[in-house]
Structure formats: structure tokens, C-alpha cells
Amino acid sequence: MQTSQHVLFERSEMKDRHLVRKKIREHIADKAKLPILIFPEGTCINNTSVMMFKKGSFEVGGTIHPVAIKYDPRFADAFWNSTKYSMMTYVFNVMTSWAIVCNVWYLPPMVKEEEEDAVHFANRVKAVIAARGGMCVLPWDGGLKRKKVKESFKEEQQKKYCQIV
Questions:
Q1: Of 42, 55, 69, 85, which sits 20 to 30 A from 138 (CA to CA)?
Q2: Can you spell out the DSSP letters for 19-30?
Q3: Where is the Phospholipid/glycerol acyltransferase domain (predicted)?
Q4: SS3 71
């Protein structure tokens, strides 16, 4: 990790997040350095949707080069459903599969527009990636896999449903 200039941080520490933002800004300002690869979802999902992006990657400025990645499950499923399979079962399935195939699409570069904030920019990039990969756009993050859904989020969804009905 030291040779490839990883930027490690503890997401729950606000000081760390500010430090990472500063390091990323410095990195993208230095034209001699290679581009940074960021997975703004913060976690993996089951190959059907694109979850909410963390806004930090979109606050630092610079040009975003979106990449859509979608696994082809014909030979093996790269997604690990930890509620269904143990880690050993998953590793066995992956290691004994014929191949793990994925489609990768390099999309046109995107820049934050003048009136756009980081959240709207992240959502615009997310929508482009989801459209190219043929996936759904989800308005929530991967925390729902591990935490209880907030009551306010449930109420918001119920209000939207009531408006439809």
C-alpha cells in the first residue's frame, strides 16, 4: 500500500475525513501523479443497483472519470451474500468457478457544474453509471445492510407512496 500511495482513514473520525479531503486535493493538483481510484459507494452491492455515493469524493474538485462495472454471473457470482453463504463457502465458489467475468465501461469525464453542490454532482455521476450498467439508482447507502432503517426515512417513503396512491 505504501508504494501505491493509498489514503487510509477512519470514516467515523471527522478529523480523518478532513485530512483525506486535503490529501486528495493535493494529489489531484500535482499533475505528475497518477489519477486516484475511488469507490464512492463505500461497499459492494449485488450487481443490480448503484447505491448512494459518499459526497467526499465529489467535494475536492477536479475531473471525475466515471467507470461502470457490472459482473456477468453466467460462470460465477462475484457478489458475496453474507446472510446466505459463509466466507469459506463464498471463497470455495469463487476459486472453483470457471471464470469471473465483468463488463467495464469507461464513461466520458465529468466536472462539477457551477451551481451544483457535491451531493447533486455525485447523484449525476451515479445516474450516468447506473444507466450505462443497466442498474437501478438507490437513494440510500450500504449502511442499511448493517443498521436499522431510520424512522424518518420510512416516513418519507410512506408519504411518497401515499402521493402515488
A1: 85
A2: HHHHHHHHHHH-
A3: 1-70
A4: strand
Q: Are 57 and 38 in contact (CB under 8 A)?
A: yes
Q: Return d(Cα 141, Cα 18) in angstroms, integer.
A: 20
Domain range for 106: 38-164
pLDDT at 66: 92
Kindly indicate the confidence band of residue 143, based on its pLDDT and cuts at 50, 70 and 90. low
How many domains does one find in the chain? 1
Please tell me the distance from the alpha carbon of residue 72 to that of residue 78, in angstroms, as a whole number: 8
Q: Whole-angstrom Cα distance, residue 165 to residue 155?
A: 15
pLDDT score for 104 = 93
Task: Output the CA angle 85-67-26, nearest 5 degrees.
Answer: 110
- 3-state SS track over 100-146: CEEEEEECCCEECCCCCCHHHHHHHHHHHHHHHHCCEECCCCHHHHC
Residue 56, SS3 per DSSP: helix
Q: Which residues contact 57 (CB under 8 A, 6 or more apart)?
A: 24, 38, 40, 64, 122
Spatial CA neighbour of 66 closest among 50, 47, 86, 82: 50
